[in-house]
Amino acid sequence: MVISMGEFANVLYEKAFKIWGADAQIQMAVEEAGELIVSLAKLQRASNGATVDDVLDELVDNEIMNEQMRLIFDYTVNGQSQFVKRKAEKLNRLAARLDSFRDKEEKK
Ligand SMILES: [Mg+2]
Known about the structure:
Distance between the termini: 59 Å
Bound molecules: magnesium ion
Shape: flat
């Protein structure tokens, strides 16, 4: 049987929670967020030999930690993931802002 990368990741995340606990994973998420901030700042300054690959590594680290944070913090109401609900709301808000920006540009 072949499992998807998402299923494989979820198996690993559950093992991580059992071995290290949710609090340790939350702390790791904080540390990885900091590493992403530093990698982006260094790339912007184009110093310290920072590269796009450094940023990609941190983006992957953050995605892995964000997926774990979602397993910890997401909950459902009437069968709906509140993460998915909020993401849809925020994407709709972004779409509205972009439409508003486009309308203002067209009036210039
Ligand atoms: Mg990292």
